[in-house]
Amino acid sequence: MSSILSSNFTNKSNQLVNESAVDSSLTASPCSTQPGDVGWCFDAPHGVLTKLPNETRAIVSAVSPNWRVTSIGEKTLAIMIPHDQPVLGISKKNFVDLLEFAEDKLEMERVLAVFEKARINPTEGFPRTLRYVGFRPYAIDEHPVHLPAEKYFIMSYKV
Description:
Ornithine decarboxylase antizyme; ODC_AZ_sf; Aminopeptidase; ornithine decarboxylase inhibitor activity; six-stranded mixed sheet; ODC_AZ; 4 helices
């Protein structure tokens, strides 16, 4: 799949990533209880999550500023999506750009959409929409240890 990114992202992706261009805050998002905040965090141990280029966060934020992203291992990109993510208002082009970036630039093998299980219905809303673009529910017995099936509903997309 060839990547068609906007010129802002294309210029940045041509630069080499060095240590200063890596966002260390992506190893874990702090939990927040402030009004308006999404109210969840990645609760994986620091050694499990991998640093990503700042460019990754910019591309994810172009889809939705409320999404959080990290890499689990070398070949899996995980995106935490708030339970109240509206279906409307998400740019289809930006979402496809994100999937292409994960494949072409980050060389990921899969993208995980992670939802708090207690706060969503897997057959409605945004999880339902993701099924139309090729995301499939992740088998409960395949959940990463730090994203337990009791707490998270995960959908997987093979890039």
